[in-house]
Structure formats: C-alpha cells, structure tokens
Amino acid sequence: MQRVWLLLLAMTIISPAQELHLKTATRAPRNGISVPVSPTVHHIVQFDHPPGASDLSALTNAGATVIAVVPDNAVMVFGPATIAGANELGELAVTEKLSPSLSATGEQLAIIEFHSDVSIPAQNTVAAEENLTLLRPSILLAWHAITNATLEQLTSLAGHDEVAYIFPADPALLTESNIMPCAGMLTLAGPIAQYANIVHGWSLDTNNSAHLNYVFGDLTPKVPDTTTESEILRALDTWSSVTNVIFQPGTDPAGARTVLIKFASGAHGDQYPFSATSGVLAHTFYPVPINPESIAGDMHLNADENWHAGGDVDIYSVALHEAGHALGLGHTDNPGDVMYPYYRKGMVLSANDIGAVQALYGVPATAATPVAAPAAITIAPSRPAVNLTINPVPTPGQTAQVAITGTVTGGVPPLSVQWQTDHGSSGSVSPAASGTWTVPAVPLVPGTNTLTVTAFDSVDQTATASAIITRLQATTAVTGSAPISVSITSPATAVSTSANPVITLAGSAAGGAGITQIVWSTTAGATGTATGVGPWIAANIPLLTGTNTIVVRAIDSKGASAWAAAVVVRH
Q: Is the pTM above the cut of 0.70?
C-alpha cells in the first residue's frame, strides 16, 4: 500500500515587503508592478497579505485555478487572475525549474514534478516531444515521474509550461519497496511545491535559543507507551543535538510554543482526518508565525497504521522527518537527506539536514542536553518558579501598533522575555533589574490580534501569558449614506469557548447603500453566507480544536463593506 504523509501549513504575513522564496532564487518585491502574462500558462500571483478565503474565491471567480503556494503570500495559478489587491509575477523561469543539485555532466536520474493539474496523458505527451521516457514506480506520487537524461535534455524539458520543477531522483525508487513518500506541505491556500523554499522557523529568545515544550496525547496501542515516547523523544533529541532548540516537557497541549504529539484515527479535530486505507502516515503543523499557537508544531500520527519500533512503519523514522517539519524545514532535493520527499527506515541526519536547521536556529556552542522522558525531568525545589504578568493593554482604536508592559519575577537570573503575535510579529526584550519589561511597539493588523509573551530563566524554566487586542478598522462609507455597521450579538463576548465542532453566530447590520449580503470566513479557510441582512444568523460554522477567529462581513449594494470578528476557543 502506498503511504503518504501530509503536512499542514497556514500562510501568515512575515513582513510588509514580501520576497518570493524559491530554491533557485529569491525574487525581490515588485512594489505593485505586475508583469504581462498569458492566462493559458501557469503563473504566480502575490498578495501583500496572506491569501485568505476571499482572495481564493476572487481568483476562482476570475477563472483561475489555484495550483500551489509559493512563500511568501503568493500562489501558483492557471488561468486569468487579474483581481484587485493581487500582483502578477509571471511564470517560473527555466532556471527556476532546475534544482541546483542536478549534475552538469552525463545522464542522471531525475524526478520531474509536473503542476498538479497536469494529467498523466499530458505528462507523457510532454516527455514524448523531448524523446524521453517516463518511469512511474508504484511508490511515486501522482505528479512525479522519473526519467534518465542529460542536463541539456532536462533544460529543454523545463521549457514546457506543464513542468514545475526537476530534481535528482533516488535510484532506490526504482528497486526498493520500503521507501515512503511525503506528499508535501499544505496551507489554507493549497500545497507548497518542491520548487518553493521555506525560510521561517520558531523565533529565538534573547539567549539565541528556541525553547519548545512537548506534550504527549493518545499513543498507539500497538507499541508500549514507554517505547513510543522514547522513540519520539530520541527523534526530537536528534535535532536538538545539532542546533539551538531545547525541548522540555509541557503541561498544556494548546499552550504557547508547545508541540502536541498524538496518535489519532479518523476525524480528530483538524481538517485532515485519517483513515485506515488512505496511506497517510502523519501530518504536522508548521510553527508560529505560520500557524496559530494552538496548533503550531503539533504532530499527528495515524493510529490505524501498523506501527513498530524498528519495523516497516518505524516510529523513530516518521517522527524524525515530522519533527523537521515542526521546526520549519521543507523538503530538500538531495536523496539521502531525512527531509528528502522520499525516505526509508534507519536514515540519519545528513550535512544538508543539519545545515538547514542551523540556518534557522544557529550552531550550538556546546552539545545540547538530550531530551529526557517527562518522568525523568524534575525542577529542584530550591529554584523559584518564573512568574510573568502582562499589564492591561490600552485600547488601540485604529492605531497600527501598541505598547505593552509587564513584570517577570522569580526564576534563576538572567531572565529574558519573548513576545509574538498570531500575525507574524515577534521580538525579545530584557527586563529591568526590578523585573519590569516594555515592548514599545507591537504591530497590529485590523481585527483580533492574539499576543503571547513567554519568559525564560537561565535553567530553562518558563512562564507564559497572553492577551487579545482588537484593532478597529475604518468602515467604508458611501457618500450621502450612513457608514456600514455590523455587530455580533451572539456569542455576547468577543472571546468565547465551546466544546462543539460547529457554532452559530447572530447579529445585525445596517447603513451604506443598503445591506445586500452577510458573509463569514474562518482562519481555517471555511466560508459561507449568513441568512438575513438586517438581523442575520450564520449557522453551522465549523470549529477546529483550539483558537478560531471568525470574521463576519456586511456588504452593501455598491460593494462597500464593514466587518466584525469573534474568537471561539474549542476545547
């Protein structure tokens, strides 16, 4: 049975001016300048914000098909895609389709990655035009094919619009059956392709380390719990031993900077249910700021698989690859790397794997302390606990940034304070001798901003606090008309909790040139239309486990709009 991994990644804004990250090049921002492009080819469209449900709907309505995601804030599309707020970046160049790892001399085995909307007959037609034969062993992903060719032949093949990327093939793909593929990374806007490059990881504290908690959920009944935990912790330790990442046991599965590791069957609280026959081994959520804190870095393994410690479905091998994704590593082009999209049991970190993780977190000054099982870690009673508080945050109104202050006490000095928002901003400050700390300017986006602050001491004790800050957005007024207003009256509070997988919102809207439609969207990508336009009700809005932000938008007859948001935390 073919085995496939899925990885979920949610696009988040990283900086105001977005670069386009490819493995072969980094394209500078075009500052609103678009290039002409034919709608009958695959081309890249970039936004100045993370593309959400409304952006994807606009692309679809314009006649485009979204094929893949390209960091940062861009998507690969096929078809016309001229919409407001989008910047046309054009096609991939031939050189951008050729992996730097390809050999310049002689024939070589290479994987041809086609755009996912290209059918197998169309793939064969392209290869035939170049007099090349495509090989498709059963383990290969549907949009991949293998050929044996020179770099000159591969360059000519890359000139076809149907081809997305070409990179070295592991010869073992043609002869061995114990290789497992990873289908790649998913975002709310679509999958990330092999030609894209991921350059973001967890932010570092003032000691230039990333402190992460881990919590175990349900484990597989097919292997003793102690063995399962030991194998997964061995995988975490493998990464922390080569870079400045420190894993320590946590207590809150939804807590800040916490990797929840669990085995699950079927629907298990996210948008990617497992099944006994799907071949999906696991999926992992990318770190903050790519994903919100409630799911960032979480690793889910399919409980219906036949797990072993050292067998064909090897816990350590799966966890080693998945932990790399949880740290922010994408797929490499080099056979033999743990992060190559096809891997086998018993692999060890290569120089490429180590270099990639050290590019995010640095080279450790000394060997990292091995990750221990939860029961083996204790805090000496003589060490005072770290205590952290955030002072009340002033209401920002429409201001784009706000100052936050607080106090940190206890712990073993020196102390450091790290902050981050769920929209990609982060930083570190050092507290004063009195324990007070100040962040003079936290950037805010319109709507709800979740701020998480974590304090660290010198022996890796931590404390975390959070606050929700709502920045108002100016409503779009219609000349001669009252400004549009929309409000959410149920739930009655801006932040509420629920144990249900769905929720119903209700409220009212008025103003503008006459309200014609009420639409809603969630941070998980779900969208819908409410019933009614004055008093309105939006039923059966799906909720993920963790924090869900729901935006409700009122639209008038002239297209002007205003919005309101609610945050629902599902237990």
A: no
Strand segments, DSSP code E, in 193-257 are 210-216, 245-249
**Residue 172 confidence (pLDDT):** 92
Question: CA-based Rg of the chain, rounded to a whole angstrom?
Answer: 25
Residues 78-127: pLDDT tens digits? 998 888 778 889 999 999 999 999 999 999 999 999 998 999 999 999 99
What is the spatial distance between Cα 398 and Cα 421, in angstroms, rounded to a whole number?
17
- Cβ 283 vs Cβ 10: under 8 Å: no
The amino acid present at 236, given as its one-letter code, is L
Pairing of strands 307-308, 313-314: parallel
Q: Which domains does the chain have, with CATH numbers?
A: 19-94 (no CATH), 95-180 (3.30.70.80), 200-373 (3.40.390.10), 386-471 (2.60.40.10), 485-570 (2.60.40.10)
Give the DSSP letter of residue 15.
-
**Are 90 and 43 in contact, with CB atoms under 8 Å apart?**
yes
Distances (CA, A) of 339 to 67, 248, 277, 349: 23, 23, 24, 9
Beta bridge partners of 114: 163
Give mean pLDDT, residues 360-372. 68
The gap from C-alpha 485 to its chain's centroid, in whole angstroms, comes to 33
For the chain, give the number of residues.
571
| Sign of the torsion formed by the C-alpha atoms of 544, 55, 536 and 395 | positive
Confidence of residue 377 (pLDDT cuts 50, 70, 90): very low
CA count, 13 A, side-chain hemisphere, 341: 24
121: preceding bond cis by omega (within 30 degrees): no
Among 94, 96, 85, smallest CA distance to 34 is for 85
Please tell me what DSSP assigns to residue 334: S
| Model pLDDT, residue 32 | 63
Range scoring the smallest mean pLDDT among 41-45, 92-96, 310-314:
310-314
By C-alpha distance, which of 47, 339, 300 is closest to 197? 339
SS3 assignment for 240-262: HCCCCEEEEECCCCCCCCEEEEE
